[in-house]
Amino acid sequence: MALLDVEDVSVRFGGVTALDGLTFGIDEGQICALIGPNGAGKTTLFNVISRLYDADRGAVVFDGRDLLSLPPHGIAGLGIARTFQNLALVQGLSVLDNVMVGAHASTTGGFAASLLGLPVRAREREGRARALEVLERVGLGGYAQLPAFGLPYGTLKRIELARALAARPRLLMLDEPASGLTHSEVGELSDMIRSLRDEFDLTVLLVEHHMNMVMGISDNVVVMEFGQKIADGPPAQIQGDERVIGAYLGGPG
Q1: pLDDT reading at 232 higher than 50
Q2: Nearest to 45, CA basis, from 18, 64, 27
Q3: From the centroid of its chain, how far is CA 60?
Q4: CA–CA distance, 200 with 125 (Å, rounded to integer)
Q5: Contact 236, 214 (CB under 8 A)
Q6: Which domains does the chain have, with CATH numbers?
Q7: Rounded to an integer, what distance in angstroms lies between the CA atom of residue 12 and that of residue 54?
Q8: How many CA atoms within 13 Å lie on the side-chain side of 37?
């Protein structure tokens, strides 16, 4: 059964069509990759799912809920977290504080906390413990008190991944997580995504240009061009699709 259904989604910016009737689904527990040339609409879809953009038509249904009817702040509470193509860390904060931003999305707070008599300090402890847990899991436990500023790019990418995990997501959306990484770092990241999927019972939606990574870890691949889906299937099927080869992977077709 699909955890996420994208149904006939279209987005236009003035005279430009960024998404054009896009439809596909992701089963719970899958790693699904979105691939396609720059400008195909992949990040636009991420921004629709996370409610940064509105859709002109269609629906995005997550576990039976239409996300397009929700405000942006309602998405994290459903169990959806994302990373960004361009790092969105606060350089002046410590590594731990950056990750705690994600943890706050999954800790009890506000009106409910008042009703339960849960002190703010207890919520801070809960968020801190969760942040430290995920930092250890991504191999950055020793970096917790360091400032984010000046750390290597590959380390910053892991911090952003940890921040998303701290929100306790069911759906983890990764926007070009391998961008800027070395060959060895890409291999480590691939292994980590698979193991995190299994360990935290995640469903993963991945936008990535690194084809070896995509084909190595994905259960399903959705290929986009000019805002439309041109292919959808397991990696072996996608690699042999003549239209995909001609449009994106290179070669005749």
Answers
A1: yes
A2: 18
A3: 15
A4: 21
A5: no
A6: 2-249 (3.40.50.300)
A7: 9
A8: 14
Q: Is 178 exposed, middle or buried (0-12, 13-18, 19+ CB in 10 A)?
A: buried
Over residues 87-115, the mean pLDDT reads 72
Task: Note whether 40 and 225 are within 8 A (CB).
Answer: yes
Tell me: the pLDDT tens digits for 128-154? 899 999 999 999 999 999 999 999 999
d(CA 136, CA 131): 9
- This prediction's pTM: 0.88
- What is the average pLDDT value for the chain, to the nearest integer? 89
Of 98, 91, 84, 174, the closest CA to residue 132 belongs to 98
CA proximity to 142, closest of 151, 152, 132: 132
The whole-angstrom separation of Cα 13 and Cα 28 is 32
Tokens of 92: 């002046």
Side chain identity, residue 232:
D
